[in-house]
Amino acid sequence: MIVTAGAIQSPAILLRAGIGSPAALRALGIEVAIALPGVGSNLRDHPALTFCQFLPPSLRLPLSRRRASFVALRYSSGVEGCDRSDMYITSAARAGWHRLGARLGLYFLWCNRPFSAGHVSLVSPDPGRYPSVELNLLEDPRDLERMMAAVRMLARLVINPVLNAAPDDFFPASFSPRIKRLSAFNRANGFAASVLGALLDVPAKLRHLVIKQFLLNGIAFKDVIEDEQALADFVRRSVFGVWHPTGTCRMGDPRDSHAVVDPSGKVIGSENLYVADASVMPRLPTANTNIPTIMIAEKISDALLSTELSLA
Ligand SMILES: Cc1cc2nc3c(=O)[nH]c(=O)nc-3n(C[C@H](O)[C@H](O)[C@H](O)COP(=O)(O)OP(=O)(O)OC[C@H]3O[C@@H](n4cnc5c(N)ncnc54)[C@H](O)[C@@H]3O)c2cc1C
């Protein structure tokens, strides 16, 4: 049997089958089949923040270019004990498909090698109840420190005469429900975004007032960047995971009490139960997670097939 339900649901399936921490299982009235305390722990995701910058007309992409162009920067934070290439920033010359998006550059920054870990746990044995998911993205102070330094570095890089030298034209983006709704591709959103976009093409002082009052609840973001406490609060409040959950059925040495699957993907202590998805990653890759997940699944299926063939 091969479980491939992803890093949130695979541990939930194992837990409901009685594979997990005995104390947590008994608390929910689930009979313990295999005691493996690591199931659901070690939940990792890349902590991320997004920013926008008003683009002068000369830097805007024509709407006929369907895709934004991207440039990415991978760099080392230099914070003690952190891996090289632990930080990542992408920039896109358009923040959306519409006329508002065409006026804004979009920056995405994240920590490739976070130390913080969260967990997935059951709230009920009922498979109809979604498990509890705690990302704990900035639990480790080194992750907060690196995210704060990255915000300052990004601001230094992009508040620049080549792009736009006005600090008030650089501000945090938001994936609020309203912005998400505006991203849907339809005529009504196209019209609304062209009105909103036109509101940005006004003299700079007026635009900065619009950005401050309507997007930042009256706060000047340049003041936040310069104030250690305000920046820490902003990062804690705004950080989100980039949909790269991993690690909740961690692969490892069977003697490691928190490993869940052995190096072949087999659930430790089981006869014939495998996990083959992002949940087996012991730690996050220094990259997006889709291709590494496919690679893991290919390796596990190759190993299973070769075992089958040698037994035949
Ligand atoms: C919005 C979003 C954007 C992303 N963008 C990127 C990107 O640009 N680049 C990149 O590399 N990665 C990206 N990722 C991450 C990437 O998609 C994942 O790392 C990858 O899909 C993980 O694969 P998986 O097999 O572990 O899990 P999944 O792809 O989630 O597959 C699990 C499958 O199991 C099914 N399932 C769950 N529970 C059950 C159940 N109880 N019974 C039956 N079926 C079940 C689910 O429906 C799903 O089809 C993104 C993810 C999201 C959500």
Automatic annotation (TrEMBL):
Gene3D superfamilies: 3.30.410.40, FAD/NAD(P)-binding domain (3.50.50.60)
Keywords attached to this entry: FAD, Flavoprotein, Oxidoreductase
Oxidoreductase found in the keyword field: yes
Sequence ranges assigned to domain Glucose-methanol-choline oxidoreductase C-terminal in this UniProt record: 114-297
Cofactor(s) this protein requires: FAD
Xref: Pfam families: GMC_oxred_C, GMC_oxred_N
Domain Glucose-methanol-choline oxidoreductase N-terminal: residue ranges: 1-48
An MF annotation (GO) of this entry: betaine-aldehyde dehydrogenase (NAD+) activity
Membrane-spanning parts: none
Oxidoreductase is among the record's keywords: yes
InterPro entries linked: FAD/NAD-bd_sf (IPR036188), GMC_OxRdtase (IPR012132), GMC_OxRdtase_N (IPR000172), GMC_OxRtase_C (IPR007867)
Uppermost EC category: oxidoreductase
Record-listed E.C. numbers: 1.1.99.1, 1.2.1.8
PANTHER family found in the cross-reference section: CHOLINE DEHYDROGENASE, MITOCHONDRIAL (PTHR11552:SF147), GLUCOSE-METHANOL-CHOLINE GMC OXIDOREDUCTASE (PTHR11552)
Family of the protein in this entry: Belongs to the GMC oxidoreductase family.
Protein name (Swiss-Prot/TrEMBL): Oxygen-dependent choline dehydrogenase
